[in-house]
Amino acid sequence: MNKIRFKFISLILVIFLAVFIVGCAWLKESGKKLWGSSTQALEKARSQGKAQVFECSLSACFDECLNIMRDMKATVFAKDKRRGVLIAMDFKVKDVIDTTELGIFFTKSENLTKVEITSLNPVLIDEVGPKILSGLEKKFSIVN
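Above: the chain sequence. Below: its structure as tokens.
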């Protein structure tokens, strides 16, 4: 009985130390993957998306994108202004499943904000990306 208890306590200790050494970020991202809310795949696909730089603050650009999502009747799945990430789905686009995610990433540089729009579905990028960027163009100046 003592050997079993010792092995159990040792196992718990090893798991605790492994989590502590690897860090909480890994645990958090693994939980998000399991739950289905990880942005890792969208972040990797940023280079295949559409991008534009606007003359505005990250906060103003982020808020305007939220307004555009509301006008498009899309569901904002996740938003984090501090990290500059907005994930939305439920776009009314032919041949696109309503749970297909569209990621909007914001990168601040002085009074400029780079907006990158990506999805794992290129049809969604081609259909929705230009609408978002043109909506932002109506409010903010484009930087070439």
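The mean pLDDT is 85.
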